[in-house]
Amino acid sequence: MQTTSGGRIDVRIVLGLLTLTLLANGCGSGPGSRNSITGPTSIAAFGAASNAVPGPGQFCEKRDDGDDGGAGSPGSASLLLKGAAGFAVFAASTVTNTGPSIVNGDLGLTPGSSVTGFPPGTLNGTLHINDAAATQAKLDLQAAYNDLAGRPCNTVAPDLNSTLTPGVYCFSSSAQLNTALVLDGQGNPNAVFVFQIGSTLTTASNSSVTLINGASADNVFWQVGSSATLGTNTAFQGTIISYASITMTTGSSIANGRAMALNGAVTLDSNVITAPVGGGSGGGGGGDGDDDDKDGKHDKHDKHHKHDKHDKHGRHGGHGGNDDDHGRD
C-alpha cells in the first residue's frame, strides 16, 4: 500500500480500491445495478429476498424498480386494487346490515351516504364515507374492474362445481356455484384465478370455494357484469367486484376476500367478511408486493445509524475502518 511522506495511507488510493471492489461485485451504477449496503443487519433484513450474491463484507440490495407479476398477471389484489385493497366492503349507494355481521377490514361508500346496521354489526376497520380514501378506492376499483374484464379468456363456461387450475374463466351471461369449487394453485403462491361473468353470480346454500396447493385468495377475482348473490351459509373466497350490487344472505361468508359494488348496494345479513392480509406476491394497499418500501426504511435507518456513529468517532479522534460494524442494530 502506497503511503505519504508522513507514513500515513493515502486516502485517495483506499477509496479507489474500494470503488473497484464494489464494481467487481456487481454494485455498479448501470442498468440493473444494486445499492451496496454493509454489515450483518443488512443480510438479516434482506437475506434470500435479494438475487444478488454478497461480496466480502457487503450485500447488494435490489432497487425498488417495481415487480413483474408476469404477462397478464396482477400479481396480487394489493397491486391490482391499489387504494381499494384495504377495504373488505365497498359500495356506491348504500351498505345495509342485519344481525351480528363482522367486517374485518375497512368499509367504504361513495357517492352514497347511508351505512346502517353497525351495530349490531361489528366493523374491525375504518369507515370511509365520501372522503378522499373512498373516492380514490372507487377510481381504483373501476380501473381494476376494467382490467379484469379485458383479460383474454382461457376457458369458456367452466364447471364451477369442480377443481380448476389458474387461468381466466369467462361466462357470457350468468354463473352458478351449486356445491364446491376447488382452486388448485399447483404449488404457485402467485397463481391467478379470474372469473369474468357477463351478468349475475349466484351461489346455492352451503356451497363453498376452497383453495389448495398454495393458491392465495388475494389472487382470486370475480368480475361480475351485474349483481352477485351468495346463498345461505355459502363459504366463499376471493374478491367480488360487481358492476351493480352484492347481496349476502344469512350466514354466508367471505373468509378471505372482499364484497365491492361499483354502482349499487352491499346488503349483509349475519355475515363475516375478512379482507386478505397480504398474498402470494405481497400485501399492503398500493405496494409493489416485495416489501421494498420497508427495505428503503432500513436503508435510511442504516445510513443514519452509520453516519451518527461516524460523527461520534470523528469527534473522538477517529476510529475509521469500523464502518462495517456500524450497521449492526
List the helices and strands and how they pair.
Elements: H1 11-24, E1 34-37, H2 40-46, E2 59-62, H3 77-81, E3 87-91, E4 94-98, E5 102-104, E6 106-109, E7 114-116, E8 122-124, E9 127-129, H4 132-149, E10 155-156, E11 163-164, E12 167-171, E13 175-177, E14 180-184, E15 193-197, E16 201-203, E17 208-212, E18 220-224, E19 228-230, E20 235-242, E21 246-248, E22 253-261, E23 266-269, E24 272-274, H5 292-315
Parallel strand pairs: 3-6, 3-22, 4-7, 4-23, 5-8, 5-24, 6-9, 10-12, 11-14, 12-15, 13-16, 14-17, 15-18, 16-19, 18-20, 19-21, 20-22, 21-23, 22-24
Antiparallel strand pairs: 1-2
Task: Characterize the structure shown.
This protein has 329 residues and is of the alpha/beta class. The protein folds into two domains: 1-59, no CATH class; 77-274, no CATH class. The protein has five helices and 24 strands. It has helices at residues 11-24, 40-46, 77-81, 132-149, 292-315, and strands spanning 34-37, 59-62, 87-91, 94-98, 102-104, 106-109, 114-116, 122-124, 127-129, 155-156, 163-164, 167-171, 175-177, 180-184, 193-197, 201-203, 208-212, 220-224, 228-230, 235-242, 246-248, 253-261, 266-269, 272-274. The strands form four sheets. Strands 3, 5, 6, 8, 9, 10, 12, 15, 18, 20, 22 and 24 form a twelve-stranded parallel β-sheet that branches. The longest helix is centred in the C-terminal third of the chain and has 24 residues, at 292-315. The chain is globular and about 40 Å long.
